[in-house]
Amino acid sequence: MRLSRYFMPTLRETPSEARIVSHRLMLRAGMIRQSSAGIYSWLPLGLRVLKNIERIVREEQDAAGCQELLMPTIQPADLWRESGRYDDYGKEMLRIADRHGRDMLFGPTNEELVTDIFRNSVKSYRDLPKLLYHIQWKFRDEVRPRFGVMRGREFLMKDSYSFDLDYEGARRAYNRMFVAYLRTFARMGLKAIPMAADTGPIGGDLSHEFIILADTGESEVFCHADYLEFDPHVGGVDYDDDLQPVVDEWTRLYAATDDKHDADAFASRAPGEKALRTRGIEVGHIFYFGAKYSEAMGATVQRADGSEAPVEMGSYGIGVSRLVGAIVEACHDDAGIVWPESVAPFRVGLINLKIDDSATTETCERLYSGLSSSGVDVLYDDTDERAGVKFATSELIGTPWQLVVGPRGVASGVVELKSRAGDVDGEIPIDSAVARFAG
Q: In sequence order, what are the residues at sequence separation of 6 or more whose Cβ sits closer than 8 angstroms to the Cβ of residue 153?
């Protein structure tokens, strides 16, 4: 993409309403714009990041054996009355009526709807287990939306649901999602620590939140300091194997959110310098809730002996749009965003230092064409701005790599290669620049 044609309305000044780093940088980088309190339009740069995160989430859900579907955003209130949650959920639920006077709602979550789909489609234990997921926009009418996309009213979420015959099967599904979440966040360059958590309005008696440690996090968390040394990359996973050892390894030390914190247990299991009391950002939440919804809504299957049994269920959420803000909170410096390559809107920023120099521009055009045809996401700064402005823009939006082309380098047959993380800064031959990123 040529920057001269790209819609990226950056801001030099920080908007007064932005109180945390991610909100400030996302506004300044031209990623989002607020349309009303807690509701944002995603501009091209932000949407590219959102799609990259969505892709990683989808790939890891598919690898874990989940099957994707898509449920509607508007749900009938009667399903929620069946489960007993319609009146209990609170004012965060946006309740509406259609033109025929039927009570409807803008779904804040999908346990009732997916249970209805299941009960009308699956009748035998032979059709179990099932893991279903979708990625969809949701709405919760927060009383005080804040922190940009970190605590908005409208948000993109992945939620998956497991259906099993018994607790043992449900626990295997829970473990699958536990491991899939570790892999998902690691691919985004994050270390998300699973912490014992309250189940909230979802219900159930087994739950973990996946937390990124950050000073700006809205949750107080308590964990063993050794988690900082854990390697989040879980490679070579066979989801048909017993994954309990992986779960046991990640839960053997103390880690809990404030809702589940036990001061005495914390003192004994994380003594002295091992006690880490800090703040964190929730990026995922998994629940096992047994037959809470299947019993209430009649989602039963026939066992091998002919008897009927309510299915055992779990639900597993990842805040896709929330992750954009969380990654910025974890990956930034004074100049701007420092995207991990896996989620960056563009992998390479190609900077033309002298647009009116024919040799420089010809070299840039050749590099731009070569990178683009090789499938490399490249943002070519072909504007006539000063060099300082170009560098500031590239650093603000967080392009992981810069290829800097100027008359002096072109005359010597080289371009400057810089990494946004600051660990690479040198010259490479022009002829090898495309090969450096292709493939």
A: 37, 38, 39, 139, 140, 141, 142, 145
